[in-house]
Each structure stands twice: as C-alpha cells, then as structure tokens.
Design the sequence.
C-alpha cells in the first residue's frame, strides 16, 4: 500500500430496495483477519438487524505502523449514508 494511504475502510452492503433484505438475514456476521493462512484476529458483529450497510473495520497507519480498529456499526439508510460518513460524495 502506498505511503500516502493512511486509512482503509472495510464495509459491507446488502443491495436492493426491499427493506426486508437487511443484515437480519445474515447468520453470525463476522470479519476475520489472516496472517498468511492463520487467523490473526476475528471480530463478530452482533446486534445487526435492519441495517443495509455496515462499516466493519478500519486499517489505519499510526506512527508508521498499521493498526486495526473494529467498528461493526450499521446504517439503516443504506450505502449512500455509509459513503458520506467516510467523506465520499454520492449523487
């Protein structure tokens, strides 16, 4: 990753206009970080129900080293709101 990149956000979205299509349909959502073929760490995202999108984690540089921040926060309103929360303009 280029040095100018300071943060990488890992997010998930359930597409479609049907409000019934949301994270309540996902069984035990989690994110797993591997070091080679071994688990480095794992984060379970509990409590997600009506959310259409989820910010799962961020990788960020701190004093030249990569750090992991697990979030697990969802948005009911969908992908546009999630993108805007990260400063991405959506038309």
Sequence:
């Amino acid at each position: 990753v280029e040095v100018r990149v300071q943060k990488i956000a890992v997010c998930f979205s359930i597409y479609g206009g049907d409000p019934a299509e949301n994270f309540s349909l996902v069984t035990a959502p989690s994110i797993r970080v591997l070091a080679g073929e071994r688990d480095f760490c794992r984060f379970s995202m509990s409590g997600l129900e009506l959310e259409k999108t989820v910010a799962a984690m961020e990788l960020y540089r701190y004093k030249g080293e990569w750090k992991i921040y697990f979030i697990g926060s969802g948005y009911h309103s969908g992908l546009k709101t999630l993108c805007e929360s990260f400063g991405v303009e959506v038309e």
Remarks:
- The first strand starts at residue 7 and ends at 13.
- The radius of gyration is 15 Å.
- The chain is about 10% helix and 45% strand.
